[in-house]
Amino acid sequence: MFEDLRQDIDRNLADYGPLSPVKRFLLCLTLNSIHVVVLIRLQFWCARHRIPTFFVAKILFWFFKIEVSSKAVIGAGLRLPHPMGIIIAPFSQIGRNCDLYADVRLVLSHGRKQGPVLEDGVFMGDGAKAVGAVRIGQGATIGVSAVVTRDIPPNAVAAGIPARVLTSSRSTEP
Ligand SMILES: CC(C)(COP(=O)(O)OP(=O)(O)OC[C@H]1O[C@@H](n2cnc3c(N)ncnc32)[C@H](O)[C@@H]1OP(=O)(O)O)[C@@H](O)C(=O)NCCC(=O)NCCS
Question: What is its EC number (predicted)?
Answer without folding.
Answer: 2.3.1.30
